[in-house]
Design a protein that fits this description.
The chain has about 575 residues and is α+β, with helices and mostly antiparallel strands. A hairpin with an 8-residue loop joins β16 and β17. The protein folds into four domains: about 120 residues, no CATH class; about 100 residues, Double Stranded RNA Binding Domain (2-Layer Sandwich), CATH 3.30.160; about 90 residues, no CATH class; about 180 residues, no CATH class. Strands 12, 13, 19, 20, 21, 22 and 23 form a seven-stranded antiparallel β-sheet that branches. Strands 4, 9, 10, 11, 24 and 25 form a six-stranded antiparallel β-sheet that branches. About 30% of the residues lie in helices and about 35% in strands.
């Protein structure tokens, strides 16, 4: 016997494992204990939550700023007004770029290791409890179990076993002397539910890592008919995106109803996809998604051709993002016939008594020329000046909504409008054109949106009832106005207004962490459902001629004693309404 015990000692020492060989003096065991400690895991999750909240509340460096020393310095200078002397220390510890700092990565890694260690440490015990449950308990357990029931009288073992099986228990029965024992187990794998929820935490953190390392995002602002590359020019998997057509729909009150873009995707010079993209239903190709994120309706396509060679030397769709004042004017004759009813562009600038004005010219069919003036910073309360009425000049002052009769004509100032305007900074100019600054563009009669939209009645630049017109200032001595398709020839350069065009903002994204997020979400939902809806239940029963004892284990929120009473009644037991079951 002594030899046998001596021989077994090395085996027992080996079974203790290398992490326990030096007891508490072993640092590896101390680290293992720390990482498997529930309190430590809770502290980590609280810290991550607080840090993530700080990353939401504190402005983070934009993608286009991060990594650019000059842009970062300018961005931080803007934050000085908010954080003062704390700006530099906050930047030094990475509070303006929390999710890309090394210490945040370490925090995520420690959380993953801690959660994984917890799962690994608990799995063997839980798996053993599932596959090799304790089927025989000491007799004293029937007097101490949290859920127990004592039955006096005869209990039908067969009926009790059948009732358990109907309740989806796996039942084993055996005989020991004059006593019959039952062990019933239901939903064994439910114990894995808690491990599944912990594993979901690991999946979520891995999704965050994948998103940081592998994600891609690029914003494109395209005009109709234009194409832009997705990646930097020299990229082996380069793709191009063409905006075939852009659509927008609006409610009568101006609220946008729908934005949509028809796109063509090219790779290697070949079209690989043609699709329609919206905010919520992007196009997808090769793991990339193409979202419509913006719409801009005030674009003018301008083409310049060298007439000597016939070559197009300039073709751009210019975004007219500025606003310029214009006057909506109607002129009627003495008989009530309307001579003019349109938005008058005011492309020129004047100074009267040191006050700047925007001005424009209107010609009537009889050759009468009228000059219209509005203050440079005009608002709805400013008057429109109309003067130079033939042989007897007269200046008219009209408030918005006012009509005045003069020289047999009725002038009605219908209101101030602000039409799209902008500059063509790199427009080719013939040598004969001397320009003091960039060419200025203004577009009236614009239509905001296409198709079944409100056609501009809901925006600051409503349609004047005609086709869009482009007024160009700086090419000739007087402003030139072109309708869609019209051209202007100046010293061998032909300037053509192709028409109003729209822009779409397309966000190209790739984030393969989406699948991990869905897997993590599914794991946590399934784990919680298993834990709370189908918790494991175990029941031990000892049946003798004088009665029976039942003991059970179930989740804390379960009223398992009542279930045991129901099973006992089905087995023929007679129970009093009040018992000492819960003692």
């Amino acid at each position: 016997m002594a030899a046998g015990r001596a021989a077994s000692e090395p085996g027992r020492a080996s079974a203790r494992g290398w992490t326990r060989s030096l007891s508490w003096t072993n640092p590896l065991r101390a680290v293992w204990w720390l990482f498997t400690n529930v309190r430590f895991a809770i502290v980590l999750l609280v810290v991550i939550t607080l840090v993530s909240l700080a990353g939401v509340l504190i402005a983070q460096k934009p993608v286009n700023v991060r990594g650019d020393t000059v842009l970062e310095a300018e961005w931080l200078a803007e934050k000085d007004g908010m954080y003062g002397f704390l700006t530099s220390p906050m930047d030094a510890v990475g509070l303006f770029d929390i999710f890309h700092t090394g210490w945040f990565s370490v925090l995520l890694a420690v959380t993953v290791v801690s959660t994984a260690a917890y799962v690994v440490s608990r799995f063997p015990g839980i798996w053993a409890a599932i596959t090799r449950p304790r089927k025989r308990v000491p007799d004293r357990y029937f007097d101490q179990a949290p859920h127990r029931l004592r039955i006096e009288g005869t209990v039908d073992v067969e009926r009790l076993e059948a009732g358990l099986r109907r309740s989806r228990y796996k039942v084993e029965r055996w005989q020991e002397g004059e006593a019959t024992f039952l062990f019933a187990d239901r939903f064994q794998v439910a114990q894995l539910g808690t491990l599944l929820t912990h594993a979901a935490v690991i999946v979520f953190i891995l999704a965050a890592v994948v998103s940081r390392v592998d994600s891609f995002s690029s914003g494109l602002f395209l005009a109709e008919g234009s194409t832009l590359p997705v990646f930097p020019v020299r990229h082996e998997n380069q793709m191009q995106v063409e905006l075939v057509e852009s659509y927008a729909e609006f409610a009568p009150d101006g609220q946008p109803l729908d934005y949509r873009s028809d796109l063509a995707i090219y790779r290697g010079g070949e079209e690989v996809l043609r699709c329609s993209s919206t905010v919520n239903t992007p196009c997808s190709y090769d793991g990339y998604r193409f979202y419509q994120v913006a719409y801009f309706g005030f674009g003018a396509e301008l083409v310049v051709r060298d007439t000597a060679s016939g070559n197009v030397i300039y073709r751009e769709t210019l975004a007219l993002a500025m606003r310029s004042p214009a006057a909506r004017l109607r002129i009627d004759d003495a008989n009530g016939a309307t001579l003019i009813d349109r938005t008058v562009v005011l492309p020129d600038t004047f100074e009267i008594n040191d006050e700047p004005f925007h001005g424009g010219l209107v010609r009537l069919e009889d050759g009468t020329a009228l000059t219209l003036l509005l203050p440079q910073d005009a608002d709805d309360g400013d008057e429109l000046l109309v003067f130079d009425l033939g042989d007897t000049p007269e200046t008219l002052r009209l408030a918005a909504g006012q009509s005045v009769e003069s020289h047999g004509l009725v002038f009605s100032y219908l209101g101030l409008e602000r039409i799209p305007a902008g500059f063509a900074l790199d427009l080719p100019l013939p040598e004969s054109v001397a320009s003091d600054g960039p060419v200025r563009l203004q577009m009236n009669n614009v239509i905001y949106g296409t198709g079944t939209t409100s056609e501009g009645t809901n925006v600051d630049a409503p349609s004047g009832g005609g086709e869009p017109e482009l007024t160009i200032v700086g090419l000739t001595s007087q402003a030139a106005t072109l309708s869609a398709g019209d051209s202007l020839l100046i010293d061998g350069y032909e300037y053509t207004f192709e028409g109003q065009r729209e822009f779409s903002g397309i966000d190209v994204r790739r984030d393969r962490s989406d699948y991990l997020v869905w897997i993590g979400a599914a794991a946590i939902v399934i784990g919680l459902m298993i834990t709370f809806w189908v918790p494991r239940r175990r029941l031990w029963a000892k049946i003798t001629r004088g009665g029976a004892s039942l003991a059970g284990q179930a989740a804390g929120q379960a009223d398992y004693t009542s279930e045991m009473r129901r099973l006992a009644v089905q087995a023929g037991a007679e129970l009093a309404e009040e018992t000492d079951d819960d003692d």
